[in-house]
Design goal:
alpha+beta; five-stranded antiparallel beta sheet; single chain; 25% strand
Length: 281
Amino acid sequence: MRDRWRVVGASVRGTAHVQSGTECQDASLWRLVHSVQGVPVLLLTASDGAGSAAHSAEGAQLVCAALLDELERLTRHDGFALEGLDAHALLAGLRAALERQATEQGYLLRDLACTLLAGVVVPGAAWFMQVGDGAIVMQDESDLRLHVWPDSGEYANQTYFVTDVPQGHVHEAVYSGDWRRVALLTDGLQGLALSNAGRAPHAPFFEPVFRTLELAQDGWPEYLGSGLKQFLDSPAVNARTSDDKTLLLACALDVPEIGSDAPVMPDHQDADLRTEAGPPA
């Protein structure tokens, strides 16, 4: 039974936010726990705060943390199964948490508007849910697979948020399979990571980042995090997007060796960025 994952994530402020002096409004968190039966359960969350909302960065951080706590609590129940997860019930709990935060801080609820991406991965299956844009990508022994195409609504710069998602725009599903690679990304990376023509993951984007993570050595999480942040803030990426960018990557560690060369990770350079990553792998 797979019990080891390597996970790295980072959120980087977009160039448009740098120019306007706006903070990074993305967040991501992850956690590896065990069910009462001893089954390893990988929990992943990411969120993009609405650019038009006054305190959306706070909302994004809150929903990631609250959902991770609730998912971990559910895994502690006897008889825990992915099929028992209910995205609508989870969202109701998150909206209640956002309403409490809004009341305590004197905000409007829409001030905390944010999207949501989440995953629960166990041996042989995975559950994913999505509200709004961004993407969840998974891979077993075959091709990359997309959970759902970004739900961006009918008009440009429109999407759906945890605070007021309408019926029909909460996307959840359980997938059977030995999912060895999982990625959550916010909409700032959609133009690089997804193919509009095929409405599918763009393999040349994902393969290098997944292989770098798989070939890294234990004890490199900070190094990997610095490399990922530098990649997300690189001129090549910033030339394609001015929005905040979050990428959360998870790889199973029992992958076959394909060579002895260590991955080439860029040296860390200080950058104006903000990271919200989980605990070390």
